[in-house]
Amino acid sequence: MKKIYVLDTNVLLQDPNAVFAFEDNEVVIPAVVLEEIDSKKRLADELGRNARFTSRLLDGLRLKGRLNEGVKLETGGLLRVELNHRNTSWMQEMFGEISNDNRILSVALNLQADEKAKKRPRPVVVVSKDTLVRLKADVVGLIAQDYLNDRVVSRSEMYNGCVSHMVHPSVIDDFYSNRHIEVQQLGEEGQFFPHEFVILKDEMGSSKSALLKTSADGKQLDPLFLGNDPVWGISPRNAQQRMAFELLLNDDIPLVTITGKAGTGKTLLALAASLLKVEDEQKYKKLLIARPVIPMGKDIGYLPGEKDEKLRPWMQPIYDNLEFLFDVKKSGDIDKILAGLGSIQVEALTYIRGRSIPSQFIIIDEAQNLSKHEVKTIISRVGEGSKIVLVGDPDQIDHPYLDASSNGLTYVVERFKQEAISGHITLEKGERSQLAQLAADLL
What we know:
Layout: E1 4-7, H1 9-14, E2 26-30, H2 31-40, H3 46-62, E3 71-72, E4 78-82, H4 89-95, H5 100-116, E5 124-127, H6 131-139, E6 143-145, E7 162-167, H7 169-178, E8 181-182, E9 197-202, E10 209-214, E11 220-223, H8 239-248, E12 255-260, H9 266-280, E13 286-291, H10 307-325, H11 333-341, E14 344-348, E15 360-364, H12 372-379, E16 387-392, H13 408-416, E17 422-427, H14 434-442
Parallel strand pairs: 1-2, 1-5, 2-4, 5-6, 7-9, 12-16, 12-17, 13-14, 13-15, 15-16
Antiparallel strand pairs: 3-4, 8-11, 9-10, 10-11
Helix pairs in contact: 2-3, 4-5, 8-9, 9-10, 12-13
């Protein structure tokens, strides 16, 4: 049975092409949604870009017919702008005021009332990224659902870069004898992505095991190149951290993604590896560290001072890690060290757009707060001879329209997992402190 989908503003601001995601059903955009999109179109960020894209898209569809009467979509469905939210009495009785969200729900309620009067009524579904809008819809008797078309993969199916494999003990013995094994030796189940880490375990129950990494072509399993030697004073404390260093220090892997909960060492490991490559080995000319400027909680507003002074509160987590690596004793000494080196640059992502960045080691911290478009813009800035590392925790997102399954970091992990130029690892064990680990697990 065909349905009527009523779209909330946040759906179009997250994915302007959402109107084409509902197959041959009817898509309804309430008039108040157009007003909200209009209020966002002058913004210089991702929301503004999507608002402008949506405006141009609807303007193009307008050429095919009157939007209030309905325009045929290439998917076979129908798109129309609905003006009928004048009957708001139901929403006003329940919630007391007529906000924009309530006007959108009023449109859906009026459509549902019209459909019930028909011989074969169609279900009316409210689609919103806003949990409270879905909750309100449910309270007033409407079907509501999240917009899932922008999700890359379900949370439980996310690629973590490491897999355990049960094998006969002779396979493990063969690996230690030859220092590599062919993937085909593991049978049909031995199908791995390039640079994926594999832990071989004895299926007979002994403690015998081996830690390996898949080759770039995915056909061979090799030992890890690095041991537990410290990198800029940082020694890997667990198997996943050792895997992270293996990817970070491999010059043949220009794209590395690292995910994990707070306190697992994502940023610290990336900084330690970058300092080794930039300062000691001089493989790269500069180290560029950036993170999106998105506040956790209430925004602190405008800040006084020059650009660097304004950015300092947002970049402080980076400076904290650098102070640890440089073993800084006094506050402020890290600025003198960085000024003396001249090869380390800490920036907000705002200043990366439009640049071309060759021969640099680039670290993007808190990458889970990037949208798909933003992460594409950033990675496409990477020039010849550069390496980019994206780190973040998909479960700690401050962006209002992103979640663990639709953010830019998850998008990159899933789209690049089959590519020989990329590698990924998920850090699981917290090493900051016992308290930090418990907080990450329990809160």
